[in-house]
Design goal:
By secondary structure, the chain is mostly helical. The protein is 55% helix and 8% strand. The strands form four sheets. It has a three-stranded antiparallel sheet with strand order 3-2-6. The protein has a three-stranded antiparallel sheet with strand order 9-8-10. A two-stranded antiparallel sheet has the order 1-7.
Length: 364
């Protein structure tokens, strides 16, 4: 059933407007709020003038806004709920204006100024019977229609009901549906809030575990650095020991070479002596010195491979493979990890990672 619209409905009927007017009454002057309207911290509204009157009555020594004396503010109680309102040095003028209420008052005054007949509920007219109002509802076709359509029109065989009855019923159904939807929305919002809290908890726990993970690996690095230092010191000691021995031999051979070179030089000079008697006086001693020098046995040289430092080779492949197997332990709780960290710091004992790294000490 098609029908034409004879009038666009207004915002509400007279009863709704009366109810709205009651919500726009100031609890001080008992008149409709006058601009500007201020909103108190307790969310109640007052005319600014009324709020100022109450404030002045509660703070008689407070200076007016136009005074040159700067006041430190004051306080008064809301006339609706007795909530204490604390104001700064601006007094009532520091309160926020309620522009929404002011706009509602403007709309209300505009609607109230219209002629009464324009507010009356207008009726939709039947398209097939232009002079008939839509006053019944066809339950079979689920459309509103007029009485003539029921008597001898398209809905004469249909079940019908009064339009106000169906209007109230469907309006009630829609209201119930809205209530259920709003309740469902509240539940969804609660779930969203809960999941947002879960996200925050995940971030907090992840941040904490990252800190613990960094501490664990920093402890591992500290153990590796300490062990590396020990091995480097051992290598340096062995290097110095070998160098001292070889350098001692070098000094010994050098001293022998220097003495032998001097003896050779003396012997050559003696051989150049032209006088046989003088030569023979020195020859015997030189011959003995040369024979003795040639028979001197020097300390043995370093054995083959003495310069090698291969015994200080460290095998770390199995340790590296073990480090690659480090993984998370789902069963370990954060509290136990905290306690382990505390014990490591207080007692200085080696942790599990340190114990595993102690193994290569004897490996060369």
């Amino acid at each position: 059933m098609n029908f034409t619209v004879g009038f666009k409905p207004l915002l509400g009927d007279a009863h709704s407007m009366d109810s709205l007017e009651k919500q726009l009454i100031c609890p001080i002057c008992l008149e409709m709020f006058s601009k500007p309207v201020v909103i108190l911290p307790c969310q109640h509204n007052l005319c600014r003038k009324c709020a100022n009157d109450v404030f002045q009555a509660s703070n008689p020594l407070w200076q007016s806004r136009g005074s040159t004396t700067v006041s430190s503010g004051g306080r008064f109680r809301c006339p609706s709920c007795r909530h204490e309102v604390v104001l700064d040095r601006h007094g009532v003028y520091g309160l926020q204006r309620n522009l929404l209420v002011e706009n509602i008052i403007d709309i209300y005054k505009q609607e109230s100024s219209r002629p009464l007949h324009s507010k009356a509920e207008q009726h939709l007219m039947c398209e097939e019977h232009e002079d008939e109002k839509i006053n019944i509802y066809c339950l079979s076709c689920e459309v509103p229609t007029c009485s003539l359509c029921k008597v001898f029109g398209a809905h004469k065989d249909c079940e019908v009901a009064p339009l106000p009855t169906i209007y109230k019923r469907q309006k009630s159904e829609l209201s119930d549906g809205i209530s259920m939807l709003v309740a469902g929305n509240d539940r969804v919002q609660a779930v969203i809030t809960q999941m947002e809290e879960v996200c925050q908890t995940i971030e907090d726990n992840s941040r904490r575990q990252k800190q613990l993970l960094n501490q664990r690996f920093e402890a591992l690095c500290a153990v590796l650095e300490e062990r590396k230092g020990d091995l480097l010191q051992a290598l340096a000691r062995k290097q110095e020991e070998k160098l001292q021995r070889v350098r001692g031999l070098i000094r010994q051979y050098g001293d022998h070479l220097e003495a032998s070179s001097k003896l050779v030089e003396s012997a050559i000079q003696s051989m150049e002596e032209p006088q046989m008697a003088l030569y023979l006086q020195q020859a015997k001693e030189l011959i003995n010195k040369v024979g003795t020098m040639s028979k001197v046995e020097l300390a043995g040289r370093p054995e083959p491979g003495y310069e090698s430092m291969e015994e200080f080779t460290v095998s770390v492949e199995h340790v590296a493979e073990m480090l690659r197997t480090i993984d998370f332990q789902p069963g370990a709780s954060g509290e136990e990890e905290d306690e382990e960290v505390a014990l490591d710091g207080e007692e200085g004992s080696a942790g599990p990672e340190e114990e595993r790294l102690e193994g290569p000490k004897g490996l060369h």
